[in-house]
Design a protein that fits this description.
With 333 residues, the chain is mainly beta. 8% of the residues lie in helices and 45% in strands. The protein has three helices and 26 strands. The chain has a four-stranded antiparallel beta sheet with strand order 1-26-25-24, with no helix packed on it. Strands 2-3-4-5 form a four-stranded antiparallel beta sheet, with no helix packed on it.
């Protein structure tokens, strides 16, 4: 049963395949990572139509997890491979280029999330160095990291994190927030002018059943967190922590929590959600004319879910970017 302060208003798109990461744009288009066919990005219009930009020339099978929109309509893609990953650029015509496949001289582990900042630097997260990734679904996870690509070179700027997931920046760019999924916390770093991260502080420590995945900010500085497994949207603000939306099953949560605490948690615990509507919420993007609509992506879902919110979201950096070349390419398909 759905509970919480928010109500689902409508859904967008059909036939999406693992829409783990959702982006909004002022044009009204929604974008999400998509694993259909060769993999790429699904574009969802207000009329529910779905078009796709897929990798057409990659020598390896790419599995998009986090995505970021660039001016012109190209996408940065975090490749979540079985054993290795990378950061790739997907152009509107389906061609692509590799931006980072190695770091510190070794192949990049599966990449989770990618984001641009206002200085046009590219930041990304790697959840774990362990193979398979499920070996780090543990309370003591500590091999995740954050890296930045600047002037064509990648470097690690924060390490030893508890399964690093989505990353978000404050409105002024002074702080970076990151979800540590299996440490069950949100950590804030101060961002230096040379793209360094320092002074880590825990902004929220979540409890049983909660595993923070998606992360965005609203215009009051509140943190909006999507939790896989518990299927919760959680807002963390100075006035307190509030569950805004939830579709949880107590028996499922108890089973997962027992496995987590006893180091037995595995992929079936993430994929076994009995929820019917919120199919493992993994992402949230604010959008709409007044930035009061939250668009939710779900790992196990096949559409994007929308809900109205009581506060305005912080517009993403790409929200007003010109995406003319992408629109032209879509018109030709």
């Amino acid at each position: 049963m759905l509970t919480g302060r928010l109500n689902i208003t409508r859904t967008y798109g059909t036939g999406l395949v693992r829409p783990e990461c959702v982006l909004s744009h002022q044009s009204g288009l929604l974008f999400c990572s998509d694993w259909q066919g060769a993999g790429g990005v699904a574009i969802v219009d207000a009329d529910d139509s779905v078009r796709r930009v897929q990798f057409a020339d990659s020598p390896i099978e790419l599995r998009p997890n986090g995505i970021a929109l660039e001016p012109g309509g190209s996408f940065l893609v975090a490749h979540l491979g079985a054993e290795t990953g990378g950061i790739f650029r997907l152009f509107p015509d389906g061609s692509s280029e590799a931006l980072c496949t190695h770091i510190d001289g070794v192949p990049l582990p599966p990449a989770n999330f990618v984001i641009r900042d206002r200085a046009d630097r590219i930041w990304f997260t790697v959840s774990t160095r362990k193979v398979p990734r499920a070996d780090d679904y543990r309370p003591d996870a500590n091999t995740g990291f954050i890296a930045v690509i600047e002037n064509g070179a990648a470097r690690i700027v924060a390490d030893g994190l508890g399964y690093t997931n989505e990353l978000a920046f404050s409105a002024d760019g002074a702080f970076a927030y990151v979800n540590e999924t299996f440490a069950r916390r949100v950590t804030r770093f101060a961002v230096g002018p040379d793209a360094t991260l320092s002074d880590p502080q825990t902004m929220a420590q979540l409890g049983p059943g909660d595993f923070p995945d998606g992360l965005v900010l609203d215009q009051t500085g509140g943190l909006w967190i999507t939790s896989i497994v518990s299927n919760r949207v959680i807002r963390v603000a100075p006035e307190g922590v509030e569950r805004m939306l939830e579709e949880s099953d107590p028996d499922h949560l108890a089973t997962v929590e027992d496995a987590f605490q006893n180091h037995r948690m595995a992929r079936p615990h993430l994929d076994g959600s009995p929820a019917r509507t919120l199919r493992n919420i993994s992402s949230l993007a604010f959008g709409g004319p007044d930035m009061r609509t939250a668009f939710l992506g779900c790992l196990l879902g096949d559409r994007i879910i929308a809900t109205d919110t009581p506060v305005r979201g912080l517009p993403p950096i790409h929200y007003g970017d010109d995406i003319g070349p992408l629109l032209s390419a879509l018109d030709r398909t």
